[in-house]
Amino acid sequence: MKKLALHWQILIGMTLGVLWGIFASSTGLVSFTLDWLKPFGTIFINLLKLIAVPLVLVSLITGVSSLSDISKLSRIGSKTIGIYLGTTVLAVTMGLLLVNIFEPGKAFSPEKREEFKEQFASTTTQKSTDAAAVEQQAPLQPLIDIVPDNIFSSLTDNGSMLQVIFFALLFGIALIMIPPNKAAPVNDFFEGVNMVILKIVDIIMKFAPYGVFALLAGLVVEFAGDDPGAAVELLMVLGYYCIVVVIGLALMIAVVYPVLVTTIGKTKYKDFFKGIFPAQMLAFSTSSSAATLPVTMERCEQNLGINKEISSFVLPLGATINMDGTSLYQAVAAVFIAQAYGMDLDLMTQLGIVLTATLASIGAAAVPGAGTIMLVIVLQQAGIPVEGIALILAPDRILDMCRTVVNVTGDATVAMVVARTEGQLHPPVEETV
């Protein structure tokens, strides 16, 4: 019998977790679930926290240092990175606007939101204290806080992720600037460490079905208590949250990318969509930009007419640093969790989410589940309880499929725009039926 794919295992784990939670609430097994099952969910969360800092540090260093091609393609490289970062910031901002307008986290009943708030009262109080302290700060203090005075202290605090990102960017840029023969051993070292860390992520994700089962079982039990019907409220609010995320993703594909393709790319979006459609479907089924990359490159070169010189540089880079769909989802998820816990995020905190989600997307591995680890980083930087990630894990696989489609479409869009501005578009190869 073929082994079940990981995403099916996770879906089964989520389903069984919800069913067990409902069963436990109606049969008096609440204490058993909280004492003997929920701890495994906590262990899973701790594993995600464990890998967050090293993953971002090493991925960013290897990603930035690999951009030495910019010395030869400086114009193309800077243009590509600029557009990628621009669309990512736009995606995060759109996600924040939508989640603040629709406020899905406030769809919970006042009683449930109050329970969440009490559960993390110390976090909420600390948040209020921090907000009061921010009001007394100089206007450039947030900028000062990004630059660490001791990188080793920052590496031991997941809440100092922006400082880690700053150091990683600085380290990567310095690697590009020193002689290649001196940089090579360092690059090899970090490439090896990066492979080790990605393998650790693989190991952690193998535990994901069990961790998700324990998280969902504990969440439903805590939410429903002795009232199984309360679980229905949880599922309805999650459905509302999913709709908000999907609206944001749809706007990226139906509005943002068409504008870029038709105005700068000077290509009919219908032709663009037809050319890239197989890659979108593969992205939807695999939830992996990296797995889809060969098909994306083939479709862009043959069916969109993008020269290989552009596609071979822009698309692999995009699979690494361009995560528009993932970044939008992180913004919505972070504020949704904060709303569920009764936390009001001020403007500076939400701007911090924009910056963290944008920079974290650069270090996100192009594999399924990477978005969850990046979300941990965003939550910790914003001071939102990481345990709240259990709220949005149930529908995460479906949303992962949708946001990967956006990621891949964004890569192809930028490749089209760069190719057009560089005069490197040729007539596409006609498909044979």
Describe this structure in words.
With 433 residues, this protein is mostly helical. Helices cover 79% and strands 0% of the residues. The protein is built from 19 helices and no strands. The chain has helices at residues 6-27, 30-65, 74-102, 110-119, 121-135, 141-146, 151-155, 161-177, 180-206, 208-224, 230-263, 269-286, 289-302, 308-321, 324-340, 347-362, 370-382, 389-392, 396-421. Helix 3 (74-102) runs parallel beside helix 15. The protein is globular, with a radius of gyration of 22 Å. 48% of the residues are buried.
Cα separation of the termini: 35 Å
Beta-strand residue fraction: under 5%
Query: What count of helical segments does DSSP give?
Result: 19
SS-based structural class?
Answer: mainly alpha
Number of strands: 0
Q: Which of globular, elongated, flat, extended, rod-shaped describes the shape?
A: globular
Give a brief description.
With 433 residues, this protein is mainly α. The protein is built from 19 helices and no strands.
Overview features:
single chain, 433 residues, 79% helix, mainly alpha
Topology:
Layout: H1 6-27, H2 30-65, H3 74-102, H4 110-119, H5 121-135, H6 141-146, H7 151-155, H8 161-177, H9 180-206, H10 208-224, H11 230-263, H12 269-286, H13 289-302, H14 308-321, H15 324-340, H16 347-362, H17 370-382, H18 389-392, H19 396-421
Helix pairs in contact: 1-10, 2-8, 2-9, 2-10, 2-17, 3-11, 3-14, 3-15, 3-16, 3-19, 11-15, 11-19, 12-13, 12-19, 13-14, 13-19, 14-19, 15-16, 15-17, 15-19, 16-17
